[in-house]
Structures are given as structure tokens and as C-alpha cells.
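[09:14] KT: can someone run the structure on this one? pasting the chain below
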Amino acid sequence: MLLNFNGVLVQTRPLAVKYYNEIAGEKGYRPIAPDEAESLGGLSIRERCRLLGVPLHRMPLVGMAIKRRYQADLPTLPAVPGMPELLAELKSRGYKLGFLTSNGKEATRAFLRHNRMEPFDYELYAAHPFSKSRDLARFVKSSGTDRARLLYVGDERRDLAAGNRIGIASVGAAWGYDSAGLLRESDPVFVAERPEQLRAFLLDYRFPC
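[09:31] RB: done, C-alpha cells below
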């Protein structure tokens, strides 16, 4: 099982809003008000750009700038409650676990040590947050993993769409960036609104033979 890092293992949305607002002030975009951050999770990226006055073609650069700014914060952030325990249980049940992230390796590993979360067999570091289909395909090829026996847990609709494009079953984690409704638009096999729902689903899930 592969998990998207930001949003699934660590909640970075408050930092993303903070640093987006800094950039908005510099570039003349509309800032995100404190009471609208959650409602943005129900909008597509195109709709968010339109609302905030960010040119769609600029959003990948804005996203990368936000991520660069919060790397210094990442090592001391808490894990999403319940995820360390869930990963430890899955590991004990024989799951092979990995994560995909465009965070820096040093900050990522510092976060994992800080939260005592080191059950991972695979660490995938992507240079670009908008290249997930390519990164997933690279992982499948390099690891020799059977796509039919791989689950990808993501918190954004584009995560799940990336899995779909290369034939990987996806699970939505609605405690991250995108709402449960938006995640369901990418036809995942399941959408969990809390880690305990993800646990219940995984304990009953049967991979295709």
C-alpha cells in the first residue's frame, strides 16, 4: 500500500493556507479567509483558481512555492491522529507500506523520527507534486509490484485520478485536502473520512486473485 504523505500522514493544509496567503499578498491574488479554507476542499483546482484569482497555469508554481516554504515546519508537525497506530497494525499483518511525497528527504525523515513512524518499506520522493501518474508508474516498474495488488491512499482527487490512469485501485482520505464528495468523483474503491474507517475497510478488503 502506498500513501500520499501530505494530507494523509500529516495535516499540512493550515500551513498551505498560511503560506498561500503570504504569496497572495506578494502577487496580488485574493487571500483565503480563515472560515473558507474547509469549503475550498469541495472545489476543483480550476474552481479554486477562479475564486482566488490565480491563473490556472500559475497554480503548479504556486503549489511548489508553498511547499518550499513549509519544509522548515514539517519536522515538528504531529502525525494525523490514529495513523501511526494504523500503520503499525498493518505492518504486523504483513502489509508492505510506502509513501509518495514531493517534500524534501531530510524534512520527511525528521518528521517520521519525531512521530516514531518508521514502518515503511518504500520511500518515493517526487521532484514535482503534479507528476503522480509518472511517479506511480515508476514505482510499479522498479519494485516489480503487481498493480492488481496495490492500493494507493490519497487525499486529493488528482491523486486518485493518477492511480486510475495506470490501473491502481485508490482509496480517498477525506481528512486531508479535498472533501469526500470531490474524492468520490474519481471513483475510488472507498473513501474514508477518518483513519478508523480506513482501518475497517482495509481489514475487510480482499485483493483480486
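[09:33] KT: thanks! The radius of gyration is 17 Å.
[09:34] RB: yep, looked fine to me
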